[in-house]
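Work Package 3 (structural annotation) set out to generate three-dimensional models for the target panel prioritized at the project kickoff. During this period the team completed the workflow that converts sequence records into discrete structure tokens, so that structures can be stored uniformly alongside our sequence database. As a representative example, we reproduce one entry of 108 residues exactly as it appears in the project archive.
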Amino acid sequence: MEDNMSQSITIYRREDRNTTPRGFGNPPMYHIDEPLSSDWDMVWVSPIDITLPEGYSVAECASGGRELYDLQDQRVEIVDDHGHPALLVDVRTNKRGKQYGVYQRLDE
């Protein structure tokens, strides 16, 4: 696994006709690998430069693409509940007993 201590990388925000605000309200998706030009049909792609937190790394997964991994070498999603590029850093419980995620934004 490649070690990317506080390394800057580019991720790609991908949207299609079903993504908010254009469509049904699906959140955008974020990928480390740039999509192939054949994947660009009806898809909007925006590169975003981010800085990985210390200890996070990028490695090739079984399907051949690259993914982001946390400190425990677990694959992590690169999106929060509001469609921003972010990492889940904690899960907390509110006064009513409902759990919610605490995220670290990557684009700020």
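The beta strands are 8-16, 29-31, 43-51, 57-60, 66-69, 86-93, 99-105.
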